[in-house]
Amino acid sequence: MKKRIVLLTAALLSLGGCALTQKPCPDQNEHSHSHAASDSLQKQQTEWGIAGTPEAVTRTIHISMTDDMRFTPEKIEVKHGDVVNFVLKNDGKVLHEFVLGTKPFLDELAVLVEHSPEKVEHDRADRAHAEPNETRELFWHFNRPGNFDFACLLPGHYSAGMVGTINVVSSADEMKQ
Fold it and tell me: Which of 154, 142, 141 is nearest to 94 (CA)?
């Protein structure tokens, strides 16, 4: 019995305490590209929402990523409850990515990418890579109102200002306008 408790404690600590706090870890383990890992992550609730499905899309937003380290548009407003299909087009000549989160989450993940890129998990519902001239889709359900962020966290891109904001307005906010 004691051995099981020690093993369970070690496993939880290896997750950086995220399982205990019910907060998403920027990245817990080495790359995970299996469908089982991807499926479980798609169902993970975050501060900025949860993975959406193509069947539930209420809005489509096209975003261009360019080598001048910019997203277009860089400011987005959606309604609380929207399921957005982000259509991500890499209009540049180098790899770019789109990662959803909060500023503190993205800051922490950017440091991890910079110092330990092999530990960063790319097969997640809240991020997508796009090769030059490639278009990718990301489906996200904004089930919480608030101000959130997105960024390209590839080395040098985030520090160059490849960031954007998403304002998720609640029904009460809409009524004020």
Answer: 154
| C-alpha span between 106 and 150 (Å, rounded) | 8
Q: What is the Cβ-side half-sphere exposure of residue 71, based on CA atoms within 13 angstroms? A: 29
Q: Which residues pair with 84 in a beta bridge?
A: 59, 140
Three-state SS string over 140-163 comes to: EECCCCEEEEEECCCCCCCCCCCE
CA dist list (Å): 154 to 11, 45, 162, 167: 29, 24, 10, 24
**DSSP 8-state code for residue 49:** B
Q: Residue 37: pLDDT above 70?
A: no
Rounded to two decimals, what is the model's pTM? 0.74
